[in-house]
Design goal:
By secondary structure, the chain is an all-alpha fold. The protein contains 13 helices and no strands.
């Protein structure tokens, strides 16, 4: 799709009904170019949740060419753009996004943090993503590590267990080598904790 077509599509997005806008966004995905990726990234900066969600879904299918621009949008001044970028990165499942997403758990906006948690759970759906996530968690101070593992445990106990196992496999917490973080430390030990994760 050439820049003139992208420009025309962008104008169409501003004036059409939501379903037609979704079709235009789908059309951009059929022939991904730098221009279409830029246009879809611009949609993530729009106030319409519907359009942002559609664009995030399509960007997630565009592969590595969309990763760096999405990572840059994690620093946007607009909370909904940061949230949409996190959602797209999670749907993409690209392992390199793990560390930047973990850093976003400190975002002041709860909607952004929720989108990041969802993205981290999606990253755990593949082995490389889980390994990168374990590496990112491993670098955190013990208290922060417990916080992120607890958050992951609440959302997906199996993924949390896999991350803890990989942290152990990688040699434990790098931030505090003295503390041998175990699964029981994360879930609190005891029979009640075992019931939560079984």
């Amino acid at each position: 799709m050439n820049p003139k077509d992208v420009s025309r599509l962008w104008e169409e997005l501003r004036h059409r009904d939501p379903e037609e806008k979704a079709r235009w966004i789908e059309q951009m995905a059929e022939n991904p170019t730098e221009e279409t990726i830029d246009a879809l990234l611009a949609v993530l900066e729009q106030e319409s949740w519907f359009l942002r969600d559609q664009a995030a879904r399509v960007l997630a299918t565009m592969g590595e060419a969309a990763v760096e621009p999405l990572l840059e949008l994690l620093n946007s001044g607009l909370w909904y753009t940061r949230s949409s970028a996190a959602i797209a990165l999670g749907r993409m499942g690209f392992p390199r996004a793990a560390a930047p997403l973990v850093g976003m758990l400190k975002d002041p906006n709860r909607t952004v943090r929720d989108a990041v948690w969802d993205a981290l759970v999606l990253l755990c759906r593949n082995e490389l993503g889980t390994r990168e996530l374990a590496g990112a968690f491993r670098l955190l101070p013990e208290r922060a590590q417990r916080y992120v593992l607890d958050g992951l445990l609440q959302r997906d106990p199996e993924s949390a267990r896999n991350v803890v196992d990989l942290i152990e496999e990688l040699g434990g917490s790098q931030a505090d080598e003295e503390s041998g973080l175990s699964w029981e430390d994360v879930v609190g030990g005891g029979d009640e904790a075992r019931r939560v994760v079984s």
